[in-house]
Write a structure and sequence with these properties.
Elements: H1 9-23, E1 28-30, E2 46-50, E3 62-66, E4 72-83, E5 86-92, E6 103-104, E7 108-116, E8 121-123, H2 127-147, H3 163-202
Antiparallel strand pairs: 1-2, 2-7, 3-4, 3-7, 4-5, 5-6, 7-8
Helix pairs in contact: 2-3
C-alpha cells in the first residue's frame, strides 16, 4: 500500500483496527484533526460513530470514509450516485470548497451519530439535525454552481487568484457558514426551551 504524505504504517494499522471495530457494531469515538468540518465539528471535538447499513444512508449524513491511503476522513455525504457498476458516493467537508474524490459505497464504514464538543452536544440522529444535514448538502451543490460561473469561480483553486475571484470565494463560503451557525444557534435555543419545559412539568 502506498502511503500518502504524513501517513505512517502505524496510522494505517490504527485505521484498520477502527474499521474492524465499526464493522463489529462497536461505537467508535474519533477526535478529528483539522477544520474541514468547521463550524459544526471543531478540531479535537469528540465524534461518536457507528456502522450503518447502505440502505440507511441519506444525503446530508456525516460519514466515516476509509481511504485507500490509510486515512480515515469524517465528511458530509452530499450525493449518492447510482451507476451501472455500483453506487458511488460524493463527500465534502463543510469548512472547505473542494470536493473529495468520489468513492465506492464500500469506502463508507460508518456514520456519525453525535458530536460532544466543549460547549455543545449534537444528536445527529435527531429530526432537527437530519433536516439540517440535508439542507447543508444542498448548500454544497449551490456552492459548486457559484464556483462554475465563468469569470468568477473559474479556476478558483489556483494560487494566483486575485480581485473579483478572491471576493467570489468569500461569497461562495459565507452563506454556508452562516447557515451552519444558525443551525447551531437554533439547536441551543431548542434544547434550552426543552429543558425549561421539563423543569416546569416537574413543578
Amino acid at each position: 500500500m502506498r502511503l500518502a504524505p504524513g501517513v505512517t504504517p502505524k496510522d494505517v494499522q490504527i485505521g484498520e483496527m477502527a474499521v474492524d471495530l465499526l464493522k463489529r457494531g462497536e461505537i467508535m469515538h474519533f477526535k478529528p484533526q483539522g477544520h474541514s468540518m468547521s463550524p459544526m465539528i471543531r478540531e479535537y471535538e469528540e465524534v461518536l460513530t457507528r456502522t450503518v447499513e447502505p440502505k440507511d444512508l441519506n444525503t446530508g449524513d456525516i460519514v466515516v470514509m476509509y481511504q485507500s491511503n490509510g486515512r480515515i476522513v469524517i465528511h458530509r455525504l452530499t450525493r449518492i450516485v447510482r451507476r451501472r457498476d455500483g453506487i458511488e458516493i460524493w463527500t465534502k467537508g463543510d469548512g472547505g470548497l473542494r470536493w473529495d474524490t468520489p468513492a465506492p459505497l464500500s469506502a463508507c464504514v460508518g456514520r456519525a451519530i453525535a458530536v460532544i464538543g466543549r460547549k455543545q452536544y449534537l444528536d445527529l440522529m435527531s429530526p432537527y439535525w437530519r433536516t439540517a444535514g440535508y439542507l447543508a448538502a444542498q448548500f454544497s451543490l449551490f456552492q459548486t454552481f457559484l464556483l462554475r460561473i465563468p469569470g468568477f469561480g473559474a479556476d478558483w483553486d489556483r494560487n494566483d487568484r486575485q480581485g473579483i475571484q478572491r471576493l467570489w470565494l468569500h461569497v461562495a463560503k459565507t452563506p454556508f457558514r452562516g447557515f451552519m451557525h444558525l443551525c447551531l444557534l437554533g439547536d441551543r435555543i431548542r434544547r434550552a426551551f426543552a429543558k425549561k419545559r421539563r423543569a416546569v412539568e416537574r413543578t
